[in-house]
Amino acid sequence: MIHNRESLPETAAHATALACVEAGIEAAHPERVVRAALQFGGTTLEIGAESHDLSTYESVVVVGGGNAAAHVAAVLEDILGEALDGGIVVTDNPQPTTVVDVRPAAHPVPSQRGVESTEALLDRAASVGPETLVLAVVTGGGSACMVAPASAISLADLQATTNALLASGASIHEVNAVRKHLSENKGGQLARALAPARVSALVLSDVVGDDLDVVASGPLVADPTTYVDALDVLDSYDVTVPEPVRERLEAGAAGSIDETPGPDDPAFEGVTTHLVGTNTTALAAAREAASERGYETLVLSSRIRGEARDAALAHVAVAEEMVATGNPVTPPAVVLSGGETTVTVDGEGRGGPNQEFALAAALELPSEAVLGAVDTDGIDGNTDAAGALVDGCLVTDPGAARQALDDNDANTYLGERGALIETGPTGTNVNDLRVLVVESLD
């Protein structure tokens, strides 16, 4: 999985960190989580506690999008065989399929290809009826991949708004509150398009807390946010957006535009949702990999958030405490965390939250510690790296490292020192995974 593994350090601690990263990503892949969630025999499809007799439906189709959507579709084809009648998914990571149409998109900023692909998806959604079972695919990255600009909003408006929000330091919950109110399919609106079909959604979550209204901007669930909330995000983070965006949000806040559908909307009566893969899935597998190598383990949290540099210092503090006192777990030990940190971008360099996290940590890590930090989709920020692998000896020029952080150019600094982890698109997306290894103090 890690393309450049041979060029990375090979000490026991480094190897353990990489093994945990690989185990976590592999465990959250659709090939595993979708197969674990579904049982199919004869004409009966079971998804968790839900059961469908496929003989009672005129057709069974797949509809959805996100980073892992094509991988999910391929698994569904293999499980259901001739019982599946086709469908369409929109993704930035295409995979070969037989009957499901895989359409291209971009991530994390929407593209014209994504607009065209989403138009085709919505056309397919409009064609289903009450005798159709829709297996809906909702995965991380769906907000950017499934893009349908609202009236008077252009793709350029969405692109500028997305870039500004991603650079602002706003959380994904806040970012998606805005995106839902600039779209024709987010915030429960895809459920409206699919009604009155029976919809069973398979969700791979890439958000802290696994809030279903935030994953891919919640296309199939009720939206608890409002136009006022969206405006508050722009104002709180001083985000400058194109005039049509602010005009739409202000019109919505004034009641001139209908809100996204709430929990009482009849569109949701035929929708059930199944959370099949989460950050906890990855953390559990990483923990098992560490235990198998003889390390004590501790899962710090699956909900780490806030500025990447601040979260990094909290992890450094844990490593320092382990070295000094043996708390909260005695070395040799592995401490794991997940979640999603953010970066307020002031510079013009290249990087992502995991690379900034890793570089900020490397400045102060004790010599006994190794840290791996990756985005499980394999693409961290505006780079081709998944993240980085660092230790307490990586930074020999603190001034240059701090300058790289100031310039938001962690990618260049880490790349020059052979510390980047490169996986390419992994086929899944369950948020970030961090592995802190502290070796024995003997």
TrEMBL record:
Superkingdom to which the source organism belongs: Archaea
One Pfam family of this chain: MOFRL
InterPro entries, alphabetized: GK-like_C_sf, GK_N_sf, MOFRL, MOFRL_assoc_dom, MOFRL_protein
Boundaries of every MOFRL domain copy: 334-432
Alphabetized GO MF terms: glycerate kinase activity
Residues covered by the MOFRL-associated domain: 17-250
Example of a GO cellular component annotation carried by this entry: cytoplasm
Protein name: DUF4147 domain-containing protein
Lineage: Archaea, Methanobacteriati, Methanobacteriota, Stenosarchaea group, Halobacteria
